[in-house]
Each structure stands twice: as structure tokens, then as C-alpha cells.
Amino acid sequence: MSSPPPDRWSRHVSTSPPATLTYGDGVLLRDGRPHRVLSGSLHYFRVRPEQWADRLRRLAALGLNTVDTYVPWNFHERAEGDIRFDGPRDLGRFARLAQAEGLDVIVRPGPYICAEWDNGGLPAWLTGTPGMRLRTSHGPFLAAVDRWFDELIPRVADLQTIRGGPVVAVQIENEYGSYGDDHAYVRHVRDALVARGVTELLYTADGPTPLMQDGGALPGELAAATFGSRPDRAAELLRSRRPGEPFFCAEFWNGWFDHWGEKHHIRSARSAAETVGDILDEGGSVSLYMAHGGTNFGLWAGANHDGGRIRPTVTSYDSDAPIAENGALTPKFHALREKLTAIDGAGAERPLPADPPLLAPRRLPVTRHAALLDALRAAAEPVHAPLPLSFEELSLASGLALYEAEPLLPPGDHEVTVTGLHDRAQVFVDGTPAAVLDRESSSFTVAGTGAPVRLALLVENQGRINYGPLLGQGKGILGGVRVERRLVHGWTIRPLPLDEWTRQDTARAAAAARPDGRAGFATATLTVDEPADTFVALPGFGKGFLWVNGTLLGRYWEIGPQTTLYLPGPLLHPGDNTLTVLELERLGDRITLHDRPDLGPQEEYVETFE
Fold this sequence. Notes:
By secondary structure, the chain is α+β, with helices and mostly antiparallel strands.
């Protein structure tokens, strides 16, 4: 439940304890003394919990005094009403580990986070609700946010510095000015934070343009900017609009993420360090996005839409960060450390951690198991419907859905069209691969004989859109399937939530039928004396999913750019470990382990807002 808008001055001066971070005359203060936030983004949900302490230690050694993290709603409440803060979702443990390293913590609770994360962090059960109006003052959306904040924000409030914890600031929404201008909604989010106990510094973060700042900033709350270049222009804009506020770059993009089918984006160490130096020369505070990127484990990678096509994000979230996906210290780490430690020298006193150990490279032969369609038919109970159902109607957040029907086709060639395909479908006619469709190319030709044909469409959700006006768009077959002008009715549908499958589920599916030599399940055994990290490649395979001891590591796809998947040592145990592959197109005959990542051909990228 929301409270009336508080009086900002009263909250900070009269009725509440003083915030740890305050400001005046353009200077940021910590406990009344001049201070700079030197932060780095590190997302607990992209790192195995066993590795949190190690990655935080590396972040501190970089010369940073703060770590910031988003909180993805859908990661904590996958199913409506089932809210969890255990294991990899233990935000409190992550924050306390940061505190043990001497780091302050900034929490960015959304409810929308973008972050190249599936659905921008919003739960699929929420965005799939008919009539829902996301990120607005629409009553049902606000009510859902309030229920979520009732669980989340008191936990954040208990971690504030005033209560003995490490949290010094909390962000209001996330880059809202890139999405809309419903200020009543942004105020509601701010008031919801305050009503649930947040007394530390609040701030908004938006792009460095008047349009974006107009949409997302709130009077009386610190306005920060997110950018990758030209900090002098950002500082000039913010100071012209907010005299007396300190300059804070809430995200400095020292690297960038990757989409399937594109190149691996990098930014040179020199370029990143020079721009950080420029931010510091402006007297600014900064957060490196990302300091350590981590991995989009499972099916949590999101997608973008460029106005013409969907652009799914790869499994790796290395993002060319100074601390690499496996924790290695990169040349960018050392270049940035030199700039950051020149401010107060704190990081220079910390010993540099050695790179994490790696398994020796090797080859693992694979054993082929059940053929694709037979395995998937055995893996899920069928749902019957006159027309194809969307993922949302199937209560399916991610994964695959197998749609099957048996239309009668007269003799001759017939065009079959799938309307509203989101995102990709492999088509089988009488069990034989016939076509691969996507959103833009969703028709194929079938030869009829006057008899029914068995039509199967294996539809993949390639990641829910995380940014822009198409946020919350549905998945699956959203329209229908027709032969020429005639709709196909009578569908059998099998929802396949791959990221919810247990080790027993994958084993049962793999054993459900005989191999056919083309696609389906395969396994390999990795024997280790002492677990350590490695990078997994699948040469000769086409597209699919890889599990390690029952944990879904992520997607692979031969179109790249990444050709190796990071396998953290904590997922392995001494002795025999099982790697399970679900291959959609073409099985290879071996899996290979490498002692370095291959993230693909490189392309320099620097965001300029032009």
C-alpha cells in the first residue's frame, strides 16, 4: 500500500536519522565529509553464490568503495506468490559479504531493471496478464508492485547503514525517461520505498539528454546519468538543470553486451580508462557498468528489438568488463585501477587476487540418446486446444513449446503461414524437418496428397524483450496457423519449461526413445579430481541447451559470436559429472573443454547517444 508523498526535507532533517550520503553545493558527502562513490555493478544473480565473496574481493581490489546491484523481480518470484530469498536469491548474504570487504552497497530494486535480463526483470505472469499496463500508474500494475515491494523493501531497509548494514543508496525505478513520462508512477515508486523504511539517499538514473531527464527525474531527488562517453556534456546538462547537486554517473558503460549473430563488443582499456579519468576530473562519482558481468545462466538472457528484428542476448554477460566472466583480471582492470586508486589510494593497498584455477583442456566423447520430437513428446503432458495457445496461456515463462496438428491437405503445394510467431519455430512435416521460421519469415510450403499431414512446430522463446516499447510482449504462437486462407484447428501442445527441469527430468527425456542420428539428447561424462572452472565448446553441434549435473548452463548457437560457455567450478564435484545436451538441429560427436573463452570476432563499441 502506498503512502502520501513525504516532505523530503522533513524526512531527512526532522523525523528520520540522517542519511549516510548527503550533498550540498554540488558536493557529495558521506557522514558530512566530501566523498566520491567509486562503484562497480556486480549482479548476484549472474554469479554462483559460492563465488560472490571472490568477485567482491576482486571488485574492491580494483579500487572501488561501493558495489551496486539490480534486484530482478522475476528471479525472486518466478510463480505468482512464491517469493524466495534463498540460495542464489539471498540478497542479504550478498550485501553482508560486500560489507565484509569494506564496500558500501547501492541497491537498484526497479521494479523494472532492463539489464539485458529476461523481460527487464518483470515476471512473465505479470506482463502476460490481459490489459496490464506496465511501468505506469495503472492501478493493477501499482498493486502488483506494492505487493512485491512489501516483501523486498523491508529487507533492503534492514541492510541500510543506519541499521548497521552496508546500503547507502537506493535507486528509484530505472532509466524511466527512456520509456515514458508518467511522473505519477515514478513518484509512486519513490513513495513506496520511503513508506517501507528507506531513509538513505534516493536517486534516479537516466540518459544524458533533456528528453530522458525530463521523463525520469523527480524534483527533490538526486538526478544521475547513464552514459558511455562525453562526461563533460552530461555534467554540463545535469548542473544546468540541477544546480547544487553532485555529478553522478550511475552507469559508465566501459563495455557492452552481445546479441546472437553479431560480433563480440569490446571497448579498449585505454578508452575506458580515459573516460573514467574525465568523469573524475569533473569531480564526479561513477559506477562501472559492468565491473564484473557474469553469466546469463539458464534462460535468463533477455532480448532487444531494433524496430525490425528481435535481437536475443547471448548466454555470456562478460560485457568486456575489467573482471572477466571467470573472475580473471584483464588489462582493463589494471588500466582502470590506476585511475581509481589515484583518488584515495585505498585499492592500491589490497593484494591482487590470482586468476581462478582452470581445468586442463580435453575432449569428451558424447553418447546420443532420444531423438528430438520423441523425447519432447515424452517430456510433457499434452494440452489440447482448438487454436494454438501462447506461452502466457500455457503459464510458460520460457523454454520451448511443441505444437502439433493434423490438417487435411488436398493434392498440390500449399502455403502455410504462422501469424504472430514469437520467436523461432522448427517445422516438421510427418516427422521430417521442413523449415525454420522466425518473426519475419513465417511461411513455408507443404505438398498435399489428399491425406492428413502431421504438422509439428517446435517454438522457442529466445528471450523476452528487456528494453523499449515492446517490453512485456508475449511468446509462442500469438495468432494462428493457416493453410492458404483456412485456419488449422485441433492442436496438441506440450509446454517445455527447460529451465525448471530437474536432473531426473532430463534423464527421463533422454531415455524416452531411440536416437535418430539427427537431433535430440546427448550426454558426456567429465571426470575430475578437483573441481575448477572451464569453458565448454560444442563443435559440430548447431543450436541447443547444455545442462551440467542437472543445472541448465544456458544456450549455445553456432552462429556465435560466443562459441564457449563458462562452466563455474562450483557446478562440478569430484568424480564423474554429467553434461547433458538438448540439440535442436544437428548433433556433434564430442564436447571440448578449453582454458580460455572464445566470445567471437571483436568489434569496438562506444555509446555516444547520437
